[in-house]
Every structure is written in C-alpha cells, then in structure tokens.
Amino acid sequence: MAEEFPESTFVGVDLATFFNAVDPDDVPINCSFQQASILHLPFEDETFDFVIQRFLGMAYSPSDWETALKELIRVLKPGGWIELAEGNFIMQRPPACYQRFYNSLAAVCLSRGVDISLLHAVPMRLAETGVIEDITIDYLSIPTGWHGRIGDICLASFGAAMRALRPAIAPTMGLDNEGYEAMCQEVLNGFREKKTWFKAPYGFGMKRVEG
User: Fold this and answer.
1) Is the pLDDT of residue 19 over 80?
2) What percent of the chain stands above pLDDT 70?
C-alpha cells in the first residue's frame, strides 16, 4: 500500500520484533514500524485517516476486544475509516481428518477465553461501537490448495499457521513432533483433494463526525 500511495504515510504496529530484521532498503520511505500493543497504542487521539487490523481474532479475549476497538477508534480521525479483517478456521468442504485438529484448536482457544467459531462475526463488532457509520460487512472466498497461485499461497500460509500452533496443539492431540507433522501433511493434502475453501470476513466503516 505504501508503494501504491506514495503521498500517504503508513505506520505498522505489532507486538512481535520481526520488524527489526527487515532491511531498511526494502521499506518504502513513507512506511515505518513500531513494536506496540493494539491495546495501548502509542499515538495521540485522532492521528490517522485510516486504520486496519487483520488476523487478531485469536489474540483477544472478549474484554480485550472492547479495549482494542476503543483504541483503534481513539487514534482515528472523525470522518476516517476503520477496517477489520479476519481469517476463519471453519472450512468449507474439509477432509474428515481436519475435524480432529479443529476440535483441539477450539478447545485450546476456549481455555483462553477465545471462541474461534465466532471469528466470522468479528467485523460486526464495528456496529457495536456506536460511533462507526456506513458499515459494510462481507467475506472473501479463499481457496486453499487449489485454484492456481492464490490457492497455493493460502495453503502454504495455513500450513505455516498449523505448524506455529504445534506447541499448544500437539500435546492435546497426544502427538509428538513427527506425528503432528504427519497430521499436518494429511490435512493439507486433503485440502487439495477436496478443494477446501473458507470465508474470510471483513468489515469497514467511517467514524462519525460530530456536530
């Protein structure tokens, strides 16, 4: 986006430190990064014309969601736009072997106060704020392992997510590292065979201009 809109300034925020490993020569001059939490944004009120949050539905408890939305709206200018975009672990046409992984993931998340079955409803939280207007809510249909390059990319991303979750999920499934990897491969191969896809929900709206 920074390259598409060179007259705008972009600021990325994440709790992780991987931004430190990015070669500055690979970053457009109108783009910068800060390590920070969405729950405590280091910006003044009404700083940005547009804010977007992606793929954090599994990171927040219900109370965190309330705080996160307040922070995103706080740093957004009146008349500015906010967008929420999420992934989804409820797959369409999944292979039978996927259900075991999903059940384990859902149980681990519930133990942390996160219900992954509700990720599709994340964008609807914009309406609950009472200050966001002109709201649009929809979803993208994401092929996973089929339909050309985009499907290959999504399959690789899903596989990376499954492997990143191994420390939390494998013990609940009674699997060692080798067994967990075999399970991942079976699921990913099944996605290709069944032409699995998922609905990636998103929503956007404008912050009300008072007066």
Assistant:
1) no
2) 100
pTM given for the model: 0.88
Q: State the CB neighbour count (10 A cutoff) for residue 23.
A: 6
Count of other CB atoms within 10 angstroms of residue 111: 10
State which residues form the domain around 89: 37-207
22: in domain: no
**Cα–Cα nearest to 64, from 1, 115, 12, 28:** 115
Report if residue 6 sits inside a domain.
no
Q: Which two tokens stand for residue 188?
A: 């990913």
Number of domains in the chain: 1
Domain for residue 5, yes or no? Answer: no
Q: Give the whole-angstrom CA distance, residue 120 versus residue 88.
A: 7
Q: Is residue 18 part of a domain?
A: no
Lowest mean pLDDT among 71-75, 118-122, 126-130, 166-170: 118-122
Q: What are phi and psi of 201, to 5 degrees?
A: -75, 150
pLDDT confidence tier of residue 118, bands split at 50, 70 and 90: confident
Straight-line distance from the first to the last Cα atom of the chain, in angstroms, rounded to the nearest whole number: 32
CATH code for position 187: 3.40.50.150
